[in-house]
Amino acid sequence: MQTFNGVANIIILALFGILLIALLFAIYQCLKAFKIERLKNELAIKRSYAEIFISSSNRFDRELVKSQLIDVFQKEEIPFNYEEIDRLIEAAKQDYLGGN
Predict the structure, then answer these.
(1) Residue 39 CA: distances (Å) to CA of 33, 68, 97
(2) Cα separation, 27 vs 59, whole angstroms
(3) In this structure, which long-range contacts are made by residues 60-66, counting pairs with CB atoms below 8 Å and at least 24 apart in sequence?
(4) How far apart are CA 44 and CA 38, in angstroms?
(5) Packing angle between helix 62-75 and helix 2-56, nearest 10 degrees?
(6) Can you tell me whether residue 87 is helix, strand or coil?
(7) How many CA atoms, within 13 angstroms, populate the side-chain half-sphere of residue 41?
(8) Is residue 54 within 8 Å of residue 65, measured between CB atoms?
(9) pLDDT digits over 25-64, tens only?
């Protein structure tokens, strides 16, 4: 009888371990999905700012748009790097000019 209790305890612990691992994996996947969504939203916000500044200018001045974007990103505490701003400006410019 004591052997049966030992085996039952081992089975219960194994099932608990499997359940715990599955739960941790599910939490990891959720956090990963939330991070991806957050990054997509952040990129959409950055692109929107770039499009607004490009479309509001009478003529396209890259340095003016770049300085405006840097000011807004710093004010809104949106993380950025300068290469990303250049790519955003170029993509927004292409969209504004109709893909030329």
Answers:
(1) 10, 21, 26
(2) 49
(3) 60/93, 62/89, 65/89
(4) 10
(5) 140
(6) helix
(7) 7
(8) yes
(9) 999 999 999 988 888 888 888 878 777 777 766 566 778 7
Residue 66: which pLDDT band, with cuts at 50, 70 and 90?
confident
Total residue length of the chain: 100
Say which amino acid occupies 95.
D
Contacts with 100 (C-beta within 8 Å, 6 or more apart), sequence order: 94
Q: Which long-range contacts (CB under 8 A, 24 or more apart) does 65-74 make?
A: 65/89, 73/46, 73/49
Burial of 28 (0-12, 13-18, 19+ CB in 10 A): exposed
Claim: this prediction has a pTM higher than 0.70: no
Tokens at residue 57, please? 């200018």
The owner of tokens 């957050």 is 38
Interhelix angle 82-96/62-75, rounded to 10 degrees, is: 120
